[in-house]
């Protein structure tokens, strides 16, 4: 080992070759994953893909059929939840209805045998941290859903666990509160530096909160990567279709960077397919841009195709346009055009 080589730090959480079977049904198939200390990782995938099963295996709430879970250097694979180091927030707020907010937050601290004075100080600090200092003496039913979820979060981090597990913590809330809380949870996580694993089926939530996204399907991990990575370079058609909108058009490979869709040739990313191979060309709607103010391609414009605009949906910051080309095997192409681009196009058609 050379003097300047810094040995790689062990991951905080390491899941190896994990399987979970329910009878004959395989809920997790040979899942392996490393999570670094302080990272925010999201498990994302459709209903039934195994996200919750994986989270529960990490917590020890359900034991895996095979495989290991190492947390902070310790093999916790067969430890009961009470002997593992985590805080958890569930979708349903799961606060104790008959205890005040302060008592709810104090629960774990009391179990850990902390002194009364210490608990009072810590609960006050946590209430302040989640912006609910005034609500300590109320009962859960007197708070809104968003406030209850903030309390659940405060309770989960009360004993400063090494790992925070979030099981769809926002999905029971209405859209506006959800977006607001996303931001708050992320801020808090950054401030505390606590390693966090969140389960969600909401791609926007995962894209906006995670350092890395683990995309799952049918009990296997399809891809692990930063949000921009899984969005820009999806590893499979499933990931391409699951995260964001994606046009998928049948195409034939012509060379290492050209392909044909219908009657037209386009440039594409470098690849290893042989010429003549039939593939699926995946094109993001926001990568489709209108060229030329009067439908004549700009000089030097690549991949130009003459299309008609069919339906248009106004989605606030952009228009989702359904483009039709007779030469695309009759397939429709979805394009997200900025409001300005559409203004330019409609001016052009009026002239
Ligand atoms: P959702 O978003 O709907 O919660 P998920 O990705 O979290 O989905 P899991 O709850 O992990 O999915 O379930 C994975 C698969 O395992 C599902 O097909 C589910 O039906 C099955 N499963 C989960 N728990 C059990 C159980 N106790 N007995 C039998 N099958 C189960």
Describe the structure.
- The structure is a single chain.
- The chain has a 6-stranded mixed sheet, sandwiched between helices. Strands 2-1-4-5 form a 4-stranded antiparallel sheet, with helices on one face.
- The termini are far apart.
- With 351 residues, it is α+β, with helices and mostly antiparallel strands.
- The protein has 9 helices and 17 strands.
- The model has no long low-confidence stretch (mean pLDDT 89).
- It folds into 2 domains: 13-241, P-loop containing nucleotide triphosphate hydrolases (Rossmann fold, 3-Layer(aba) Sandwich), CATH 3.40.50.300; 245-350, no CATH class.
- The structure holds adenosine-5'-triphosphate.
- Residues 13-243 form the ABC transporter domain.
- InterPro entries: AAA+_ATPase (IPR003593), ABC_SmlMolc_Importer (IPR050093), ABC_transporter-like_ATP-bd (IPR003439), ABC_transporter-like_CS (IPR017871), AminoethylPonate_ABC_PhnT2 (IPR017666), Mo/tungstate-bd_C_term_dom (IPR008995), P-loop_NTPase (IPR027417).
Give the SSE layout.
Layout: E1 13-22, E2 25-35, E3 40-44, H1 51-59, E4 66-71, E5 74-75, E6 87-89, H2 101-111, H3 116-129, H4 145-157, E7 163-167, H5 175-192, E8 195-200, H6 203-209, E9 212-217, E10 220-225, H7 227-232, H8 237-242, E11 247-255, E12 258-261, E13 264-267, E14 278-283, E15 308-314, E16 318-324, E17 332-338, H9 339-350
The protein binds adenosine-5'-triphosphate.
């Amino acid at each position: 080992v050379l003097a300047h080589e810094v040995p790689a730090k062990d991951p905080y959480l390491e899941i190896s070759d994990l399987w979970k079977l329910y009878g004959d049904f395989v809920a997790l198939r040979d899942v392996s994953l490393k999570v670094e200390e302080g990272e925010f990782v999201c498990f994302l995938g459709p209903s039934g893909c195994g996200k919750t099963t994986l989270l529960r295996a990490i917590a020890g709430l359900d034991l895996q059929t095979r495989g290991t879970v190492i947390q902070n250097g310790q093999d916790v694979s067969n430890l009961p939840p009470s002997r593992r180091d985590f805080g958890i927030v569930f979708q349903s707020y799961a606060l104790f209805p008959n205890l005040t907010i302060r008592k709810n937050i104090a629960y774990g601290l009391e179990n850990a045998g902390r002194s009364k004075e210490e608990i009072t100080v810590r609960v006050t600090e946590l209430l302040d941290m989640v912006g609910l200092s005034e609500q300590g003496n109320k009962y859960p039913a007197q708070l809104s859903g968003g406030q209850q979820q903030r309390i659940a979060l405060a309770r989960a981090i009360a004993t400063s666990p090494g790992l925070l597990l979030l099981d769809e913590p926002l999905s029971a809330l209405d859209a506006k509160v959800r977006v607001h809380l996303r931001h708050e949870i992320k801020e808090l996580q950054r401030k505390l530096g606590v390693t966090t694993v969140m389960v969600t089926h909401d791609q926007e939530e995962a894209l906006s909160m995670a350092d890395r996204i683990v995309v799952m399907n049918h009990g296997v991990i399809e891809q692990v990567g930063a949000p921009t990575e899984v969005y820009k370079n999806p590893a499979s058609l499933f990931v391409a279709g699951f995260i964001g909108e994606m046009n998928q058009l049948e195409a034939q490979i012509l060379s290492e960077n050209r392909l044909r869709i219908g009657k037209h040739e386009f440039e594409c990313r470098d690849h290893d397919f042989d010429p003549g191979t039939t593939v699926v060309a995946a094109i993001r709607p926001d990568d489709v841009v209108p060229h030329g103010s009067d439908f004549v391609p700009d000089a030097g414009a690549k991949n130009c195709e003459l299309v008609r605009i069919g339906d248009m949906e106004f989605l606030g910051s952009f228009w989702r346009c359904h483009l039709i080309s007779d030469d695309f095997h009759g397939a429709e192409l979805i394009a997200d055009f900025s409001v300005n681009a559409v203004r330019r196009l409609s001016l052009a058609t009026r002239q």
